[in-house]
Amino acid sequence: MTIATTTMSSLLSAVKTTLLAYQNTTLEKIHTFQRGCLPPLAIFPALALLPIKETYIYGFSNGYYEVDREILIEIYDLKGTTKTAKDTTVDLVKAVKDIFEDNFTFSDSSYFSSWGYESYGETISVNRGFLFNSYISLVCRSRESFATRELYNTVENNPSIVSLQDKLLSILRENKASEFNTVDTIAESPVYPIPNFPAILVGAGSRSRLQTYPAANVSDILFDVAVLSQLFNKETSLNYNLSIVEGVKNVLQSNHTLDGMCEYGNINSIVYDQEKVPTGFIYSTTINFSCRTREFI
After folding, report:
1. Do the Cβ atoms of 281 and 258 come closer than 8 Å?
2. Buried b / exposed e across 7-30, counting CB within 10 Å, b at 16+?
3. Partners of 287 in the beta sheet?
């Protein structure tokens, strides 16, 4: 089994490269191939690749874990009638599926892939006709190794959520220069007014208690670490958000005990989204990070 150093960015690139190999054959109708949101003046039919979610699966030995990365393959067409636009997108989605039947590792970016949900039926009426959108999701699994992780002989008992949040913010700020030096804001969430972008915001956290010992609880404290950056209709805009996410991921995995305040911490998932804010649109990526703590009664 391949042990790969895979990121959401490298997976999107590998999928795009695979598709581009067919741009003069089964995908010859597609004029625009884009990682991220389509530009306003895209030439149709157009294909967009968007990150959706990463799910982390633990329990493997020798320092390895698995990740399921889900991406969305969207196909748009602009025609004078809804039917002709729909027929084009449906045919192109089928062509994409046929390509991936024989290309499911994407240059060793994954060792297994499977289709998720698909949709055929989103129409937008525009000045030039009807813009139709069909899409299908793809889930790719890879096995990866942990970053070098700190070790502590003693672990703090009964840490508060506030103290853990403060420590998490402190560690992110300490690593800003080396991992994400262009980030403008690192703060608690929510922040009012709207922070300067790019920003890293750490939510207040929540506790889930797992009682396993007499007179003591083992708790999982969950934090949402949001990475926010401005969305422009260029691939570099998505790349920028993804690079910050990888920097935050490296910091969380390398400092997973938060300087001995918890037994260990793990990334559970990363969710990718887009949002509208008063200043425009942003890429909004949320990393769910759990800390296993000891709570003595």
Report:
1. no
2. bbbbbbbbbbebbeebeeebbebb
3. 225, 270
Token pair for 160:
């508060």
Residue 100 neighbours by CB under 8 Å, 6+ apart: 18, 113, 138
Find the angle CA(70)-CA(257)-CA(207) to the nearest 5 degrees.
Answer: 70
Strands (E), the chain: 32-35, 46-57, 64-79, 112-126, 129-145, 185-188, 199-202, 206-213, 216-230, 264-277, 280-296
Q: Which helix (H) or strand (E) holds 229?
A: strand 216-230
Q: Residue 130: what pLDDT?
A: 84
Residue 2 pLDDT > 50: no
The model's pLDDT over 75-118, given as tens digits with 9 standing for 90+, comes to 999 988 888 888 999 999 999 998 887 766 666 778 888 888 88
Strand 185-188 to 112-126 pairing: unpaired
Beta bridge partners of 9: none
Contacts of 178 (CB under 8 A, 6+ apart): none
β-pairing, 46-57 vs 64-79, is antiparallel
Q: Which domains does the chain have, with CATH numbers?
A: 8-145 (3.30.2000.10), 161-296 (3.30.70.1700)
